[in-house]
What does this fold into?
Amino acid sequence: MRLKIEQQIINIVSKKRKSLPREGVRKLMKSLDNEFTKASLKVGRDTLFNVLRKHNMLTLRKKTSARTTNSYHRFYKYNNIIKDMEVTRPNQVWVSDITYIRTVKGFCYLALITDMYSRKIVGYDISVIA
It folds into this structure.
């Protein structure tokens, strides 16, 4: 009996996935609620997750990220001259880093300059990627 119910669920989801192949389980729950009711199936979110997981039908999110490193550039690569240095006072060594921030309009970058001894931010810039 349980396999028959699972097969009905899979058939209903497969039909929906033909038109919307990337639709996740939570959205499927809302859009297929009427279909499940017509088939007199009582399907909750966790049940749907488990059935789709069992049949390898869960969709994975596409991870989007900004490409941040190009190690094959034509510019000179400087050696790490502070690798063995012992930092003993403020403003002796500053370090910098860039991080990318996702916004509604795309990505921005935040560049920070930090004092290595006190770990305080001594400078920053935030810009929109054109």
About this structure: The longest strand covers residues 94-103.
